[in-house]
Amino acid sequence: MKIKADRDVCIGAGNCVLAAENVFDQDDDAIVVVLEESPEGKDADAARNAVGSCPSGALSLEE
Amino acid sequence: MASPSTETPALPLHMRRERFDPPAEMREIREQPGLARVTTPIGRPAWLVTRYEDAREVLGDAARFSSAGLPVIPVPGTTPEEQRSGNLLMLDPPEHTRLRRLLTGEFTVKRIRRLQPRIAEIVDSHLDAMEQAGPPADLVPDFALPVPSLVICELLGVPYSDRAEFHRRAAKQLDLTRPLEERGMVAAQSRAYMAELVDRAFAAPGDDMLGMLVREHGDTLTRTELIGVASLLLIAGHETTANMLAIGTLALLRHPEQAALVRDDPNAAAPAVEELMRFLSVVHTGVPRTATAATRVGDQDIEAGDVLVVSLPAADRDRALVEDPDQLDVGRAASHHVAFGHGVHHCLGAPLARMEMATAFPALLRRFPTLAPAIPFSDVDFRSASVVYGLRSLPVTW
């Protein structure tokens, strides 16, 4: 799995951090920062959930 | 007492509820092909979007579905341009993006977590006061409304001592049964009040959000924009969470085994908040969208200039989102509901609202383990004809 985040599209809602704290963070302006590009196991499930919960469409993943 | 739907028969379908539920008619519409027609409270015909996937498509595409097109309520002494200025809900990208990015840093998950101890303190002090006064209490004025009000006042830099006035104005501004002239007058008063606070912040910026915006962005933000932004944050910061706390508590009390879970299991609060948000979806619709070009939604042809309203409660009760959508189940895995909206206008304050609710619901239920409504369910005063659904009052005892 590889996660892609488009920081220009991100609106800083923070849903991804709440869904997958080990995988995503926010910078000081709330814009997404990917901590783990290729999460595994539980973190991979959480990352899939995070991508589904992203309101802006900034997140995508390649399985 | 009559149910809200018979009390106010003139309300458009997308603003009607049957207690916790969207009207039964909404389900039939969701299951039929195409989109239904409704009339907005200002008398404009619109398409009604009820399916989850359609809702995400419309709300998720600001280029095809604009939030900027609709006329505003006339406000004395203010041009429509001034009224739109700073009102994020009525702006499209790129203007929306520029303004929103000035604010998002205040609502990061990290920043909100740092606020949690203060939120818990505010919750506890209101529970102390309820306990000292003894039962019965009215949960709306004693808990649900003051807690988020004090939180947003401190965050934004609004004197909490002014709450009686801004509560009254906010309730009137959101009440769609009031004449447009009256809502316009009240909006003018709200703007004048916020203009004073903004001018004070320009003169002597404090440590709050108004002060931060002046200090860090005072060169790019106009006074009018700041008035618009701050007015929106004040209303959105207390009306939404207040109504969720009141009607959410009632929903939990109607499902005692689920209330017990929220009370006893510290890990239950966060998913319970998501499920209560989905189940209740207190914001009826976002700002109506205007199609920027001829397009299709589902199998419905839409013409350029057509208006669409997205029913958030209808979308959140779609089987495409969860199994048994009409059941409240706080134990289910958190769903990707649209109660906070979707797309670029997704609630800016969502991390704050979630934290307030995840703190307040368990604290209330732990303080008063025998909490119960003090009136029959059939007498509960639901508030339908408002931009935000909820309760006017909730007498409780313990």
UniProtKB/TrEMBL annotation, chain A:
SUPFAM superfamilies: 4Fe-4S ferredoxins. The keyword Electron transport applies. It comes from the Bacteria. Its cofactor is [3Fe-4S] cluster. Keywords: 3Fe-4S, Electron transport, Iron, Iron-sulfur, Metal-binding, Transport. Residues 1-61 form the Divergent 4Fe-4S mono-cluster domain. InterPro entries: 3Fe4S_ferredoxin (IPR001080), Divergent_4Fe-4S_mono-cluster (IPR010693), Fe-S_cluster_ET (IPR051269). Residues 41-63 are annotated as: Disordered. Ferredoxins are iron-sulfur proteins that transfer electrons in a wide variety of metabolic reactions. This is Ferredoxin. It comes from Actinomycetospora endophytica. The lineage of its organism: Bacteria, Bacillati, Actinomycetota, Actinomycetes, Pseudonocardiales.
Automatic annotation (TrEMBL), chain B:
CDD domains: CYP105-like. Coiled coil: none annotated. It comes from the Bacteria. PROSITE patterns: CYTOCHROME_P450. SUPFAM superfamilies: Cytochrome P450. Keywords: Heme, Iron, Metal-binding, Monooxygenase, Oxidoreductase. InterPro entries: Cyt_P450, Cyt_P450_B, Cyt_P450_CS, Cyt_P450_sf. It holds the Pfam family p450. The keyword Acyltransferase does not apply. PANTHER family: CYTOCHROME P450 YJIB-RELATED, P450, PUTATIVE (EUROFUNG)-RELATED. Belongs to the cytochrome P450 family. This is Cytochrome P450. It comes from Actinomycetospora endophytica.
